[in-house]
Design a protein that fits this description.
single chain; about 220 residues; globular; alpha/beta
Length: about 220
């Protein structure tokens, strides 16, 4: 019997808003808009795009950015109940995010613990914020530029006995959606799934995700 294992995005999924977009709208210069458009259009890799975006921001803004995100991030309805549900049902919950550790971890801290959190890392040793990628693509990833490579993480941490569930909203989740056993999608990820024929279940709140898991666990019992 296969066991559910969840890989959940952060920006635009756990949070209602995309925090990197919000950061760039608030702190970024005009050049950030074109980089964002190039990422969404897949003209440049996510890895290159995120690195370029944060290179526009001085390291002196670190604490101001953390404060901004903590005050503006809106946690999607039902997330606390969802995390509790995974604990009660012994379902591994991995957070897999193209977000950056210095603002992501403070937002998530009240809701953990999680099985593990995967994200990109920021260095503040230079004049501008420098992004590092400890979870890069393996040789099987067709993108080879994900940054935090979600399909690689799924391959490393699952096995044939697991039923892999991806929860996401954006282009950063698309490659992982191609290999997941089930996809819970919203926003731009729905569009990409429909364009390519990937089966998905739409969601708006984490109560929807709990309902899906209830049905799944019931079907497997």
């Amino acid at each position: 019997m296969t066991k559910p294992m969840i890989f959940c995005d952060f920006d635009g999924t756990i949070t209602n808003n995309d925090n990197i977009v919000r950061i760039m709208e608030h702190f970024g210069p005009i050049e950030a808009k074109q980089i964002k458009e190039d990422i969404l259009a897949q003209n440049i890799s996510i890895q290159e795009g995120v690195k370029n975006l944060f290179s526009l921001l001085p390291t002196s803004k670190k604490e101001e950015i953390i404060h901004f995100v903590l005050n503006s991030a809106e946690i999607r309805e039902g997330f606390s109940a969802f995390v509790r549900y995974t604990h009660e049902n012994d379902i591994p919950l991995y957070i897999v995010s193209g977000g950056i550790d210095f603002f992501l971890e403070p937002v998530l801290e009240p809701y953990g613990p999680f099985t593990k959190v995967f994200c990109n890392q920021a260095s503040f040793a230079l004049e501008t914020i420098d992004i590092h990628y400890p979870h890069e693509c393996d040789e099987l990833c067709s993108s080879q530029g994900c940054g935090c490579c979600k399909p690689t993480i799924i391959r490393k941490h699952s096995s044939p006995e697991h039923f892999n569930i991806l929860i996401g909203d954006s282009i950063t989740d698309f490659e992982a959606a191609k290999i997941a056993d089930a996809v819970l999608a919203r926003d731009f990820l729905i569009q990409k799934c429909e364009e390519t024929g990937i089966s998905y279940t739409p969601f708006e709140t984490f109560h929807d995700c709990i309902e899906y898991l209830d049905e799944l666990v019931g079907a497997k019992s």
